[in-house]
Amino acid sequence: MELFALFISLLLINNVVLSKFLAVCPLLGVSKNSKNALSMGIAVTFVIFVAAVITWLLYYYVLVPLNIAYMDLITFILVIASLVQFVEMFLKKTSPAIYKAMGVYLPLITTNCAVLGVALDNITAGYNFVEAMVAGLAVPLGFTLVIYIFATIRERLELATTPEGFKGVPIALITAAIMACAINGLTGLV
Amino acid sequence: MAVFWMAILVFLYIGLYVANKKTPKPEGCENLEAGCEGCQLYDCTHNPVHHEEEKR
Asked: What residue segments make up the domains of chain B, in order of their start?
């Protein structure tokens, strides 16, 4: 039950984009088209989940025993960058279909602060391995949910009568703010 | 120990980066675009500014 509460909390209430304001760059940049947004979300989900697991294991089984826990930040950055390179190479060789669907977004994810944010949050929050896995799944699923909804709204805004000065990024930011207010209303649910 | 660990990570990243660059893209994936509309980060390779310069 606690794991379920953690999952819902990270998915909706403490949403990585609308509550913590991480990963706003891909939210604004890759949300013009709902299909691209969904592909980006799937790629982010995969990378964050794997990165969360690997960084947790590295921290508790390498950094802490070697008394170099202070190097967690640089370690996580390099490991995440290496992981993305490996995943891209693996997809190119083994699954061209998946690479075609989401491979182009992988380099974007390297600089996505949500990946590092999840890795560091798992450590600072003191999660065990299972909780870290749940967090590694809930956070990117929350990101995917938000970016997909945001993309569908932006697609409709393209057809709507928007004042000239608000077209493009301004109305997108207003939309994101309204979504953040809506998510904030869920505070206290879990 | 910290320096040794850093060296391992850096060489790991360089090795994977080079290996990834050498791996050819699958057929039909040569001209994929992220569909990113770009922002003010001009050092990002996905920013459409760079694609416009290549087209010129």
From this structure: 2-55
- Check pLDDT > 80 for residue B35: no
Q: Is B10 on the interface with A (CB under 8 A)?
A: yes
| B4 touching A (Cβ < 8 Å) | no
- In a domain, residue A190? The reply is no
- For chain B, give the percent of residues with pLDDT over 70: 50
Q: How many C-beta atoms surround the C-beta of residue B48 within 10 A?
A: 12
Average model confidence (pLDDT) across chain B:
75
Across the A:B interface, residue pairs with CB atoms under 8 Å apart total 83
Q: What percent of chain A has pLDDT over 90?
A: 36
Residue A52 token pair? 């969360």
| B14 and chain A in contact, CB less than 8 A | no
Range of the domain at A162: 9-184
Q: Do B23 and A86 touch (CB under 8 A)?
A: no
What pTM does this model have? 0.83
Chain A residues touching residue B20 (CB < 8 angstroms)? 85-86, 88-89, 92
Contacts B44 to A, Cβ<8 Å? 111
Burial annotation B12-42 (CB, 10 A radius, 16+ → b, else e): bbeebbeebeeeebbeebeeeebbbbbeeee
Number of domains in chain A: 1
A44: nearest Cα among A101, A91, A130, A114: A114
Is A28 part of a structural domain of the chain? yes
What is this model's ipTM? 0.74
